[in-house]
C-alpha cells in the first residue's frame, strides 16, 4: 500500500471516530419510560481515554525517566513490562487538544512527570466527573419515571441525578452535584460543586474547584449511548472544550456490578511505611 493510501485510510478512520455519534444512529427510537428514553443498564466505554484524553502514541509506561536513547520506564514500574505500557489512541477531545492556559499547561506536565505520586486513581480516591464514565470498569444507570441514579464499580462511586434543581451545592465534593433535564431524547446533566482533587486521566490533565461539566446522554441504538461532556474551568482553560465517546451495554447474561472497594487495596501504599517493620516495596 502506498503512503498516500495509508494516509487516506488513517484520515477516514479519524473522520469516522470524530463524526457526531448521534449522526451515526439513523432514526433509532429507544424504548421509553414515562415518555422518555430508557437508559437503564450496565454500560462501559471501550477506549483509552483514562490513559490520556488527547491523542497519543504508544509509550513504554505512564511514568518515564530519561534514558540513554530516549525515555524509559521509571524505576518503580520497570517490572511491569508490557503490562505497564500505554496503548495508542486517536483521542476523544474535540479539536484534538485541551486548551490550557500556559501556566496551567506547565502544571499538567508536572503532574504527568510525577504521576505515580499524584494521580488520585492510584490511591483509590473517587474518580470525579467525567472520569468516572471512562474508568475501565462498568457502571450502572438506574432510571424510573422520576429518578436517576448511577453507580460505578470503581471505588463504589455513586451519583444521584436530581431531576428537580435543589439549589446550589452545599459543599464541594469529589463527584459534584448533578442536576438533570431532558432536551428532546437527550438527558442533559449539569454538574457543579467540585473540589480540585480529581484528574481527568492518568496523563495529569486536571482542573480547579471552578470546574463545570455538562454531560449529554443520547441512546443511539439498543446497545449504545452517545456520551458527550463539555468542560468549563476559567482558572485552567482558555475556553470550554468537549469530549465524546460511545458507551456500550455489557452483553453477558448474568452481568452485574461486583465489589471493587479499592480502599483496602491501597492501605499498604498509603500506610505501609508507618509499620513498625515496613514490608518494603
Describe this structure as you would to a colleague.
By secondary structure, this protein is α+β, with helices and mostly antiparallel strands. It folds into 2 domains: 36-46 and 94-274, Calycin beta-barrel core domain (Lipocalin), CATH 2.40.128; 56-89, no CATH class. Helices cover 15% and strands 26% of the residues. The protein is built from 5 helices and 13 strands. The strands form 3 sheets. Strands 3-6-7-8-9-10-11-12-13 form a 9-stranded mixed β-barrel. A hairpin with a 5-residue loop joins strand 7 (148-152) and strand 8 (158-162). The radius of gyration is 20 Å and the shape is globular. The termini are far apart. Residues 1-8 and 21-25 have low confidence and may be disordered.
Biggest sheet: strands, sense, closure?
A: 9 strands, mixed, barrel
Choose one word for the global shape: globular
Q: Could you give me the name of the CATH homologous superfamily of the largest domain?
A: Calycin beta-barrel core domain
Total strands: the figure is 13
Strand proportion, as a percent range, falls in: 25-35%
| Class based on secondary structure composition and strand pairing | alpha+beta
* Tally of contiguous helical segments: 5
Spatial arrangement of strands, main beta sheet: 3-6-7-8-9-10-11-12-13
Taking Cα atoms only, what radius of gyration do you get, to the nearest Å? Answer: 20 Å
Instruction: Report the end-to-end length measured between terminal Cα atoms.
Output: 49 Å
Q: Overall mean pLDDT score?
A: 91
Amino acid at each position: 500500500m502506498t503512503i498516500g493510501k495509508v494516509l487516506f485510510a488513517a484520515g477516514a478512520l479519524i473522520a469516522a471516530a470524530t463524526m457526531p455519534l448521534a449522526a451515526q444512529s439513523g432514526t433509532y427510537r429507544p424504548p421509553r419510560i414515562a415518555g422518555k428514553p430508557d437508559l437503564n443498564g450496565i454500560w462501559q466505554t471501550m477506549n483509552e481515554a483514562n490513559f490520556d484524553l488527547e491523542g497519543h502514541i504508544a509509550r513504554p509506561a505512564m511514568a518515564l525517566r530519561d534514558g540513554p536513547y530516549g525515555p524509559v520506564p521509571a524505576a518503580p514500574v520497570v517490572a511491569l513490562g508490557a503490562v505497564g505500557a500505554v496503548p495508542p489512541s486517536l483521542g476523544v477531545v474535540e479539536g484534538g487538544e485541551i486548551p490550557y492556559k500556559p501556566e496551567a499547561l506547565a502544571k499538567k506536565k508536572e503532574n504527568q512527570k510525577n504521576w505515580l505520586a499524584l494521580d488520585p486513581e492510584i490511591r483509590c480516591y473517587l474518580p470525579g466527573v467525567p472520569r468516572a464514565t471512562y474508568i475501565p470498569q462498568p457502571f450502572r444507570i438506574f432510571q424510573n419515571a422520576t429518578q436517576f441514579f448511577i453507580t460505578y464499580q470503581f471505588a463504589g462511586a455513586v451519583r444521584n441525578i436530581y431531576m428537580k434543581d435543589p439549589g446550589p451545592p452545599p459543599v464541594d465534593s469529589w463527584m459534584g452535584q448533578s442536576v438533570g433535564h431532558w432536551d428532546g431524547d437527550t438527558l442533559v446533566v449539569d454538574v457543579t460543586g467540585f473540589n480540585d482533587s480529581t484528574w481527568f486521566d492518568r496523563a495529569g490533565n486536571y482542573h480547579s474547584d471552578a470546574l463545570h461539566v455538562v454531560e449529554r446522554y443520547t441512546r443511539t441504538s439498543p446497545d449504545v449511548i452517545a456520551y458527550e461532556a463539555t468542560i468549563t474551568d476559567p482558572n485552567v482553560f482558555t475556553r470550554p472544550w468537549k469530549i465524546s465517546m460511545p458507551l456500550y451495554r455489557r452483553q453477558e447474561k448474568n452481568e452485574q456490578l461486583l465489589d471493587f472497594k479499592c480502599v483496602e487495596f491501597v492501605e499498604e501504599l498509603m500506610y505501609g511505611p508507618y509499620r513498625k517493620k515496613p514490608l518494603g516495596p
